[in-house]
Amino acid sequence: MFTDPSLASALALSLESAINTALKFDPGTRAKLKQVEDKTLAIKCEQPTFNLFISANQQRISVSAHQDGEATTALNGSFINLSGLLINNAPSLAESGVRVEGQVALLAEYQQIVKDLDIDWEDALSSLVGDLPAHQIARLGKNGLAWLLPRGKLLPSFIAEFLTEELQALPHRTEVESFSREVEELRQKTERLDARIKLLQSQQLQQLKPSS
Amino acid sequence: MSSKADGATDKTTHFGYQTVNVEEKAERVADVFHSVASKYDLMNDLMSGGVHRIWKKFTIELSGVRAGNRVLDIAGGTGDLTAKFSRIVGEQGQVVLADINDSMLKVGRDKLIDHGIAGNVQFTQADAQYLPFPDNYFDCITIAFGLRNVTDKDLALASMFRVLKPGGRLLVLEFSKPKNTLLKKAYDAYSFTMLPLMGKLITNDADSYRYLAESIRMHPDQETLKGMMKTAGFSEAKYYNMTGGVVALHKGIKA
Q1: Which residues of chain B neighbour A64 with C-beta distances below 8 Å?
Q2: A143-173: string of b/e by CB count within 10 Å (b at 16+)?
Q3: Helix axes B40-48, B195-203, angle to 10 degrees
Q4: Looking at CA atoms only, how far is residue A110 from chain B in angstroms?
């Protein structure tokens, strides 16, 4: 994909800087990186073609675009499938469109590390705006999240109710199910009718044939 | 006194566009780096727009350096590559930051110590042409933006070949010749107007940055340097153009 080999390195450098900046505010996760030291996770993107090699060293994550030798574990797939895996945080690779080579245990270890991420955003903010404003912003953020998260979970059911009951723009689930059942019955009756017509036609043809 | 193809003779060489005595070049290059040492990192970021970090990242990636390796960073200056190598080689490995210029070496040493990078790093004031190390000693040698300032490049490459272990890699990161004519013109305009101007504003030294632009033009192009590496004994010599050939990374292996 990259005609200039340093472009892939630029991508790797950006990711590496972003990850290590975030890890600076999560000492717990940094300590856990010891588990995955000396092991390399390769992400081999096929469409578009580029590779990323992730490894841990001295409580830092290293991301490279070029590497000699075999990786401990390699994930192969298109960009869409690979990013889908990352976004959905799926527990299994089944039907993800991503192939895995090498030690699957390393994937589980990285997955656990990502799951346990606990970045201290207040600490990160304090270095930019000072301790007191950082605390206020973090408190507002936490309160906002505490308010938003349960509502976020309820939001889909609120929308569904509004569309079916208030606007009556969509049918209710029971109406759809009843309609589907009726369509299915109609389909079966039509098939039976079709079979009977064919039977009658074949009987009529037999009667019309001259007897030998 | 025999004549060289580029116009310099055995007793003269280039200092930018000027022809100077061989002895004089080392002194004048030293003066340039004494002058710019304190603002070297800032100027690198300004001049390249931060892209020098990507070029160096690519160099690290191609070095193939592993834990426990011994690495020599020639013309290591303010220690960008040494800092990365120090993390990779770990406690069992060793990185030697060598620079002929004591001002650059002091800035590099202070910067690394301030960043907590110590223990597996050694600092040596050394001339790339006469490296003070045993034969077959290093697993990898890098020289980033330093070779063009060396008076006798062939002698320096031979010296690097000597101290490299069999199977070891030499990586030469250096300004080179852009392939695209349009890019070349834009690059020339930028180098000869903006660089001295930035040098004047930031370090109050336009001449040093004029020398930078001139020395880049006098440096061998990609194919010539590849040939020089082969002559020095390196096998599998090849190069990677970056940013349209503004910079090239040459790689050679001691068989």
Answers
A1: 60-61
A2: eeeeeeeeeeeeeeeeeeeeebeeeeeeeee
A3: 150
A4: 20
Domains recognised in chain B with CATH numbers? 49-178+220-253 (3.40.50.150)
> How far is Cα A24 from Cα A123, in angstroms, rounded to an integer?
10
A101 by DSSP, 3-state: which? strand
Q: Are A15 and A52 in contact (CB under 8 A)?
A: yes
Residue of chain A whose Cα is closest to the Cα of B64: A68
CB A82 within 8 A of CB A98: yes
Q: Is B48 on the interface with A (CB under 8 A)?
A: no
In sequence order, what are the beta bridge partners of B124? B98
Neighbours of B177 (CB within 10 A): 19
H or E element at residue A144: helix A131-161
Q: Are B76 and B98 in contact (CB under 8 A)?
A: yes
Q: B54 at the A interface (CB within 8 A)?
A: yes
Token code pair at residue B149: 């300032």
> Are the C-beta atoms of B151 and B129 separated by less than 8 Å?
yes
Kindly report the pTM of this predicted structure: 0.74
Taking only the tens of pLDDT, chain A with its 212 residues reads 567 888 889 999 999 998 898 888 888 888 889 888 888 999 999 878 889 999 998 888 999 998 888 899 999 998 888 888 777 666 677 777 888 898 888 888 888 888 887 777 777 778 778 888 888 888 888 788 778 877 777 787 888 888 888 888 888 888 888 999 999 999 999 999 999 999 999 999 988 887 65
In chain B, residues 181-240 whose CB comes closer than 8 Å to chain A: 240
For residues B71, B77, B78, B83, the Cα torsion angle rounded to the nearest 10 degrees is: -10
Q: Looking at chain B, how many residues does it have?
A: 255
ipTM: 0.75
Query: Residue B216: which of B244, B169, B174 has the closest Cα?
Result: B174
Question: Contact B57/A66, CB-based, under 8 Å?
Answer: no
**Partners of A50 in beta bridges:** A45
